Amino acid sequence: MTRTINIIGCGNVGKVLGRLWAANGTFSIQHVLNRSLESGRQAASFMQAGEAVGAYDSLRAADVTMIATPDDSIGEACARLARTGLLAAGSIVFHCSGALRATELAAASACGAAVASVHPIRSFAAPEQLIDAFAGTFCGMEGDSEALAILEKAFSSIGAQTVEIAPEFKSVYHAAAVFASNYVVTVLDVALQAYVKAGIPEDIALRLMEPLTRGTVDNVFRLGPTDALTGPIARGDIGTAVKQYRAVNAWDDRYGALYKQLGKLTADIVARRNASKKAKI
Questions:
Q1: Neighbouring residues of 277: CB distance < 8 A, sequence distance ≥ 6
Q2: Strand partners, 51
Q3: How far apart are CA 73 and CA 11, in angstroms?
């Protein structure tokens, strides 16, 4: 028998998952509860399933409840759900935050429900496009084993690749995405500013950076960071690195501090590479 699911806070994440589950027969979408009844109706229309309701006391009990609200609202949404009396042993409640642990759903746990967090690691800015592109998406999971057993199958049914994460390092896990995405942009912006400082027009600087950056990223995913690393520190040319640091620091001490810290971390990568080579001898 197909399990029922209620979705609280059905924005882009909820709409994409709900539509895929409904189309696949994984879950029967029961109720959608958004801040406004109209947005709930729009979400149900997108999913081609489910009925929008306007309040918590209009919900009927479901096997599974997904809370896909913004992070700041997850705890309150769960508390309000718990006060309905709909949760009991055997119920499953999960949220989709990458930053918050499953323990954010303590109110549901107190009612006997199994709780979890499942975080799809990708952008949901264009939900229509994602319907056909979701397969292969990695999802970080943590929480109660009873909930994870059901949710792993549910996400796998729509093509997701699930990976369990250590809940005590949930914030570090979420920061990894910032390093892999946001801070890459920041470092590239520093590189761009440095080229401009050296007299190269910004549009040309972007063009000359592109093959260097793309080649480096390709090598990281083909060879791994330790073998992809090149440059003065990788070659042991510390004199050049020190000269560069001093020049950058004289230009802008913020960038100088960044260069110095990145240089230390780069030296650590070189040390790991050298240790690995020695171990193979």
A1: none
A2: 31
A3: 13
Residue given tokens 């499942």 in the structure block? 118
DSSP track, 117-176: EEEE-S--S-HHHHTTT-TT-EEEEEE-HHHHHHHHHHHHTTT-EEEE--GGGHHHHHHH
Distance CA 107, CA 100 (A): 15
Is residue 139 a contact partner of residue 116, using CB atoms and an 8 Å limit? Answer: no
Q: Which residues pair with 93 in a beta bridge?
A: 65, 115
**DSSP label at 28?**
E
Q: Is the alpha carbon torsion for 81, 47, 4, 106 positive or negative?
A: negative
Q: How far apart are CA 116 and CA 144, in angstroms?
A: 6
Read off the pLDDT of residues 39-76 as tens digits, 9 standing for 90 and up: 999 999 999 999 999 999 999 999 999 999 999 999 99
